[in-house]
Amino acid sequence: MSLGSVVKMSLSFMIAAFGAGDKPLLLFNTQPITPATINQPSRHFRVGEPVHYALINPKGFKSDYIRVQVIKKEEKTAHWGYSIYWAKDYKIDSTKDNYVNYVVINRPGYYFMQIYGFNDFDRVIARNDFWVVDQ
After folding, report:
1. What is the pTM of this model?
2. Among 91, 52, 85, CA closest to 69
3. What is the CATH number of the domain that holds 59?
């Protein structure tokens, strides 16, 4: 069974559980996202461990490219400043309604990931946050 078909089946469960409707979802996992792991999301990771993510976009993508950004909230500033920790552009298959990949974070802290379509950099497709802790 392909991830796409599992995503469609799991999406019905997630819509009911999270009330997402037709809005995009950004899920994280400590393991590669497969049919067996897609319903076991996590938001806590260890330094150097892959942060596997899946963007599920029920309405599909309007562009063949997306920009994935990981933003770190800095604790050393008075009001928790932000810095772009990592960013990368990816060519995607716009005929699918999902994108799956991973990133490795080597510094502990509080992060959030946001994903944009190349058709509109002023509006995120999806955003979610996670923690990375020392081992």
Report:
1. 0.84
2. 85
3. 2.60.40.1930
